[in-house]
Write a structure and sequence with these properties.
Shape: globular
Organism: Nonomuraea spiralis
Structural class: alpha/beta
CATH class of the largest domain: Alpha Beta
InterPro entries: AAA+_ATPase, P-loop_NTPase, TniB
Order of helices and strands: HHHHEHEHHEHEHEHHHHHH
Number of helices: 15
CATH superfamily of the largest domain: P-loop containing nucleotide triphosphate hydrolases
Strand content: 5-15%
Pfam family, one: TniB
Number of domains: 2
Largest sheet: 5 strands, parallel
Radius of gyration: 23 Å
Protein name: TniB family NTP-binding protein
Length: about 350
């Protein structure tokens, strides 16, 4: 199914939004030769421009080492947990913001569901993957309600935590759910009473629901997730996959970064862009984004939108410099030191 980026979509934290995400195919527009472009009507030119704006607003998902590691590890955990009746093993993805955690776990879920459907492993009405985010100051009941909201299961306010949890667990068991993705786990701090109770709820859900649990959040090691008695239980059942910014110190580091930049550049659909321009600017792109994959994607996508809107149809260092990206990446950039007073610079 090819979804139009201009159409309103359901949130990813709902079964309708997740189904759209799994079925979504990003089709790259075909570039029109200049001679043909001049013969196109105003309406056709507008449609051509809009199709490329929509495309660059999304662009491609690059298969980074983190995405590949999570995909491989997640697939093995699902296979290992098939015959487990308790103490199922899961994954925890932790690292700074902008290092691809959400992309990694959602791609794991998407790839798993697509493969299961192609193989005919799912019956009608099956819901193999669930994706939810942890709300701020989450309580055990709030976590269960998030799962119920994803399913579309109405929950009267009078229902207790136990009633909501039981209904959710029973329904997910009948829907053949095999993968539960819980994002934004940093909103849960088990050093507090509410956070500790919510952590216990996740453990209880993983016991009741015959699925592999994959958790993701920002710098989870600092939330107390692995400390104390509760932390020891989590550490004994989950493997930690850390994420980080792309380094740029060794030749291998630079080669990996260049491969990432080249993949994004090859995906561009700009009429006047010279292939290899971004590849030559890879050191600048690393300095500008501090090696953050999320910041790099944002920078290139917005520069591509600017190139279409202002008619230049190409990305240059100057156009990249005009794009404002997230403060996390900008704040890591080295600041040029001012020369000592009284001394002149060449």
């Amino acid at each position: 199914m090819l979804l139009s980026p201009g159409e309103p979509h359901h949130p990813l934290t709902s079964k309708e939004g997740w189904a759209e995400f799994v079925a979504e195919q990003i089709a790259a527009p075909v570039l029109v030769p200049p001679a043909q472009l001049q013969r196109m009507s105003e309406h056709e030119c507008a449609a051509y421009e809009q199709s490329r704006l929509d495309y660059h607003a999304q662009l491609v998902i690059v298969s980074t080492p983190t995405i590949r590691h999570v995909a491989t590890s997640g697939r093995k955990r699902i296979l290992l947990n098939r015959s487990q009746r308790s103490a199922r093993r899961g994954l925890i993805i932790s690292g700074p913001a902008g290092t691809g955690k959400t992309t990694a776990i959602t791609q794991l879920g998407k790839n798993y569901e697509q493969l299961a459907r192609r193989r005919g492993e799912l019956g009608p009405g099956a819901l193999p993957v669930v994706y939810v985010t942890v709300p701020p100051a989450a309580t055990p009941k709030m976590l269960a309600i998030e799962l119920a909201r994803f399913i579309g299961l109405p929950m009267p306010a009078r229902f207790s935590q136990v009633e909501v949890t039981n209904r959710v667990c029973d329904l997910l068991g009948t829907l053949s759910t095999r993968l539960v993705l819980i994002d934004e786990l940093h909103n849960l701090d088990i050093r507090t009473r509410i956070g500790a109770e919510a952590s216990d709820q996740i453990k209880y859900l993983s016991e009741r629901i015959p699925a592999t649990f994959v958790l993701a959040g920002v710098d989870l090691e600092g939330t107390g997730l692995f400390t104390g008695r509760r932390g020891a239980q989590i550490a004994s059942r989950y493997s930690l996959i850390p994420t980080a910014a792309f380094p740029h110190r060794t030749a291998d580091d630079r080669r990996d970064w260049q491969a990432l930049v080249a993949t994004l550049e090859q995906a561009l659909r700009l009429d006047a862009h010279q292939s290899g321009t971004l590849l030559k600017l890879s050191p600048y792109l690393h300095e500008r984004t501090s090696g953050m994959i999320g910041s790099l994607s944002h920078l290139i996508r917005e520069a591509a939108l600017d190139a279409i809107l202002n008619g230049t149809e190409k990305i240059t260092r100057a156009s990249l410099a005009s794009v404002d990206i997230d403060q996390a990446a900008e704040g890591c950039r080295p600041v040029a030191r001012r020369p000592p007073r009284g001394k002149k610079t060449a």
